[in-house]
From TrEMBL:
Residue intervals passing through the bilayer: 38-60, 72-92, 98-115, 250-277, 283-305, 594-613, 619-639
GO biological process, one term: monoatomic ion transport
Coiled-coil boundaries: none
The protein, known as: Copper-translocating P-type ATPase
Length: 649
């Protein structure tokens, strides 16, 4: 709306300015005259006032009803006084209309509010994204054992449904038949698929992977875990408080100042010279000059440049207020998986036995796991590539569900698998391998064994979610800014403690259920903390919206992105530090601009009132308008300086 009205009003303002007597005098030209040309300026000004000024008058009424005068009342006061006085000047001798000032004032205010509204967050689509996780239909098993496709809304408790590989679970339930792994990252944010067997619980919206499952429904509709998360997101969004902009508060104060100065001006001049048209001009000049173009642009200009600068540095701003308030953060809470860590398994340690070297162990293990798409296989292959190790050739590859894999290497049988494989083969580990496995277990790391000839464990690999190198730098930088760092995870106490100690995190919350994450944010807030939440999963969505500033990792789920106030495109925790630096720099620019904008008024209002009239200095409306334009130019130049800010960490 502001954009459309700005362009229309700007187009109509061109002839108003061209035919304005003041503009002609300033630039030394004479506009052509023709029958009716004298009415071009007043008629178009009336149209611009009615079309471009009405939104401000409408919003001013709301401020008036709430008894909270702000920018809208100040703008409305100025354009109304300018409009009425200019119309009146057409019929009163000795007065000078300033229609050109009226239309440029409306144009600049429309531009400022268009820029401001562009940066306001769009309506959040988090709930829509959550709803997309749910399938529309399900395959219900009938009494005869056949399947029938029914809408999910028709499912009831104790119904049994068939969930094929690749399909989404339609409702919360319990596995009654079949074995498979289920991708629960949409709900938990954790990267590792979870094995399911009879008796295991499954959650609506999660995705079945490699096996068919028969599931007995235990919860439907509003009772499901996903529905509960949707409610939390909705409640947290509604709980956000309204924040007043600095410019609005300044405008509110200026509104009262303008009325006060105008009243004093009127009384003083009437007492001094009696009431005449000159007194009216003084009062009008005060009221029009009280609405500075610069104050209307002081914040929107900085916001617009802030938004583009952030985008160039991998930060997308959805909520302007959250961006402004990031400067006040004293606590940043990170989700662990996919945020501080890469969200994927990596080899973090290796131990060999006998005369086997680490390189030889990786050559064989990477060769045996060469064609597997399992995350552990990928981790071993990636580790081998990092070491520049070539895979051996293998044959007779076989996969054993729940145990591991087997292949032939140089005529010898080689197995790779976890503790179940060792137990199945009845093999004893060497003391070194056993101690390595015990230490890895205490750090909640997964241990995979390389077995030769079904008789000897020749190597063990410890795997864990790999910590991002940027995480260490980010936490150090946050500590340098006197900001505490907390970590939130659904992982075990051992994993949380190990990661926390390695990164130097101040506080961590382990084994947190999806529905509990936002309560941890609330817990910190109840201690008086100003909290940012950084996360990437659906279960992070309520916490992202509950936090004072919600920061979503860009490669995370759509729901987390829709729930965040700010999105980090590059999955880099260092961007949190850059965000805070940019927020502080932007706030400084806003303060500087507000000082310039209001400083103009401190200087211009007394002159407009005629305080220096005794020594022959009297500010005319036209000269006051020129000063106003200079103030606007200074504010614009100062805002542009934000583009050159150094955000390096």
């Amino acid at each position: 709306m502001f954009r459309r009205r700005f362009w229309v009003s700007l187009a109509l303002s061109v002839p108003v300015l061209f035919f304005s007597e003041f503009i002609q005098d300033v630039f030394g030209y004479t506009a052509p005259t023709f029958p009716g040309s004298v009415w071009i300026t007043p008629v178009l000004s009336v149209v611009i006032f009615a079309y471009g000024g009405v939104p401000f008058l409408s919003m001013a009424r709301t401020e008036l009803e709430n008894r909270e005068p702000g920018m809208m009342m100040l703008i409305s006061l100025a354009i109304t006084v300018a409009f009425v006085y200019s119309i009146g000047s057409l019929f009163l001798e000795g007065t000078t209309p300033f229609f050109w000032e009226l239309v440029t004032l409306i144009d600049i205010m429309l531009l400022g509010h268009w820029m401001e509204m562009r940066s306001v967050r769009a309506a959040s689509g988090a709930l829509d994204e959550l709803a997309k996780l749910m399938p529309d239909t399900a395959e219900r098993i009938t009494e005869s054992g056949d399947t029938e496709e029914v809408p999910v809304s028709e499912l009831g408790e104790d119904d049994v449904v068939l969930v094929r590989p690749g399909a989404s679970v339609p409702a919360d339930g319990e596995v009654v038949e079949g074995e498979s792994s289920v991708d629960e990252s949409m709900i938990t944010g954790e990267s590792r698929p979870v094995g399911k067997e009879p008796g295991s619980e499954v959650v609506a919206g999660t995705v079945n992977q490699d096996g068919s499952l028969r599931i007995k429904i235990t919860k439907t509709g509003e009772e499901t875990t996903l529905a509960g998360i949707m409610r939390l997101v909705d409640e947290a969004q509604k709980s956000k408080s309204r924040t007043q902009l600095l410019a609005d508060r300044a405008a509110g104060w200026l509104f009262y100042v303008a009325l006060g100065v105008a009243a004093i001006t009127a009384i003083a001049w009437v007492v001094a010279i009696g009431f005449n048209i000159g007194v009216l001009e003084r009062v009008v000049t005060v009221l029009v000059i009280a609405c500075p173009h610069a104050l209307g642009l002081a914040v929107p200009l900085v916001v617009a440049i802030n938004t583009s600068t952030a985008a160039q540095n991998g930060m997308l701003i959805r909520d302007r207020i959250a961006m402004e308030e990031s400067r006040n953060l004293d606590t940043v809470m990170f989700d662990k998986t996919g945020t501080l860590t890469k969200g994927e398994q990596g080899v973090v340690g290796v131990e060999t036995a006998g005369d086997w070297s680490e390189d030889r162990a990786f050559e064989v293990a990477a060769g045996v796991e060469g064609d597997s798409e399992h995350m552990i296989a990928r981790a071993i292959r990636d580790a081998a590539e990092e070491r520049d190790v070539q895979r051996v050739s293998v044959s007779n590859f076989e996969n054993f569900r729940g145990l591991g894999v087997r292949a032939t290497v140089d005529g010898e049988t080689v197995h790779i698998g976890g503790p179940n494989l060792i137990e199945k083969l009845g093999i004893e580990r060497s003391d070194g391998i056993a101690a390595f496995a015990e230490e890895a277990g205490s750090n909640a790391e997964t241990v995979i064994y390389l077995v030769q000839d079904e008789s000897e464990v020749v190597a063990a690999f410890a795997l864990a979610d790999v910590i991002r190198e940027e995480s260490r730098q980010a936490i150090e930088a946050l500590h340098a800014m006197d900001i505490e760092v907390a970590m939130l995870t659904g992982d075990s106490e051992d994993v949380a403690r190990a990661v926390s100690e390695e990164l130097g995190i101040d506080q961590y919350f382990a084994e947190v259920l999806p529905e509990e994450k936002d309560t941890k944010v609330e817990q910190l807030q109840s201690e008086g903390r100003f909290v940012a939440m950084v996360g990437d999963g659906v279960n992070d969505a309520p916490a992202l919206t509950r936090a004072d500033v919600g920061i979503a990792i860009g490669s995370g789920t759509d729901v987390a992105i829709e729930s965040g106030d700010i999105i980090l495109v590059d999955n880099n925790p260092l961007d949190v530090v850059r965000l805070i630096k940019l927020s502080k720099a932007s706030y400084r620019k806003m303060q500087e601009n507000l000082v310039w904008a209001t400083g103009y008024n401190v200087f211009a209002l007394p002159l407009a009132a005629g305080i220096l009239a005794p020594i022959g200095i009297l500010l005319s409306p036209a000269i006051g308008a020129v000063f106003m334009s200079l103030s606007t130019i200074i504010v614009a130049i100062n805002a542009r300086r934000l583009e050159g800010i150094d955000l390096s960490v």
